[in-house]
Write a structure and sequence with these properties.
By secondary structure, the chain is mostly beta strands. Among the domains are: 138 residues, no CATH class; 33 residues, no CATH class. It is 0% helix and 36% strand. The strands form five sheets. Strands 1, 2, 3, 4, 5 and 8 form a six-stranded antiparallel beta sheet that branches. β11 and β12 form a beta hairpin. The relative contact order is 0.11.
C-alpha cells in the first residue's frame, strides 16, 4: 500500500476543550464582556498577554487519503488532530482582544492501516460494520495501446493490439495454419506466419486452392483422373474436386 495524496476533510469535527477566560486577574475592574473574537469595550483593556486568554483548544476530524493497491486507487480514513492556540491581540491597549490562532494539524492515527474507519466522534478508530475499510475510487490509469512502440500490451487489460512491430511480414505474433480443406478442395499457404499490418492487427496470407487427388477425399486433380472409358460421356473434374460424367446427347 502506498500513500498518494489527501482527500477531502470532513466538516464534522469533535472538540474537547473550549476557550476559558476564567483567569481575569489582569483585566480591568469594569470589564463586563469578553469572548474569543473581536468584541471589546472601548476604554477597557481585555488582555495584556495570552495567559489570560485561556487554554489551547483541541479538535479531531476524520479525513480520507488516497491509497494505491496494485492498479487500483482506494480511499482510507485517518484521524487528524487540530490544535488552536489562544493569543492576545493588541495587548495592553483598549483594542486588545483574545482569539485563537491555528490550527496546527497532525495525524493521530491512520485507521485504514488497522483495517478500521473513524468512529462517530471522529477521535478513535473502530471496526467497520460492513467490513469495508477502504472505498474503491478508480483505476490508477487507463491502459493505452500504442501501435509501433515495440511492446505487446496484455489483451486481458483491454488492449486491441495483435502484433508488433507494424508493417512486418512473417510476424511472430501472427501464426497461421499452413494447409487445410474446404469441402474436397485442398488449400495451402507459403509459410506459418502472417503479416502485421500498419494498425498492429494480423493479416493472414491468402489461401491457394487446388484439387489434389486423395487429399481432402478428393477424387481428382484434373479431368484425366476421371476417365471412365465411356466414349459417350464427357469426363470432368468439378470445382469441388469430384468426378462428373456428362452424357453426350445425340
Amino acid at each position: 500500500m502506498q500513500y498518494i495524496r489527501n482527500g477531502n476533510l470532513s466538516y464534522n469535527l469533535s472538540s474537547n476543550t473550549s476557550l476559558n477566560l476564567s483567569n481575569t486577574s489582569n483585566l480591568t475592574s469594569n470589564q463586563t464582556n469578553t469572548s474569543a473574537g473581536n468584541e471589546t469595550n472601548v476604554g477597557d483593556v481585555t488582555c495584556f498577554n495570552a495567559s489570560v486568554c485561556g487554554e489551547s483548544r483541541i479538535e479531531y476530524g476524520c479525513e480520507r487519503e488516497f491509497v494505491e493497491i496494485g492498479q487500483n486507487i482506494y480511499e482510507g480514513e485517518l484521524i487528524k488532530k487540530y490544535v488552536y492556540y489562544p493569543i492576545c491581540r493588541y495587548p495592553g491597549t483598549n483594542r486588545s482582544f483574545c482569539e485563537y490562532w491555528g490550527p496546527v494539524v497532525s495525524v493521530e492515527e491512520k485507521c485504514w492501516q488497522q483495517k478500521k474507519v473513524c468512529d462517530i466522534n471522529h477521535n478513535e478508530c473502530t471496526t467497520p460494520a460492513d467490513g469495508n475499510y477502504l472505498n474503491f475510487v478508480q483505476r490508477r490509469y487507463e491502459l493505452k495501446c500504442e501501435c509501433g512502440n515495440g511492446k505487446m500490451e496484455a489483451e486481458n487489460l483491454g488492449c486491441w493490439e495483435e502484433c508488433e512491430p507494424p508493417d512486418e511480414e512473417n510476424n511472430e505474433y501472427c501464426p497461421q495454419d499452413v494447409e487445410g480443406c474446404v469441402g474436397h478442395r485442398y488449400w495451402k499457404r507459403p509459410d506459418d506466419r502472417g503479416r502485421c499490418s500498419q494498425r498492429c492487427t494480423c493479416d493472414l496470407d491468402d489461401k491457394i486452392y487446388k484439387c489434389l487427388k486423395y487429399e481432402c477425399d478428393a477424387e481428382c486433380s484434373n479431368k484425366g483422373d476421371c476417365n471412365d472409358g465411356n466414349p459417350e460421356t464427357v469426363d470432368k473434374c468439378s470445382e469441388d474436386c469430384m468426378c462428373e460424367h456428362i452424357l453426350i446427347k445425340d
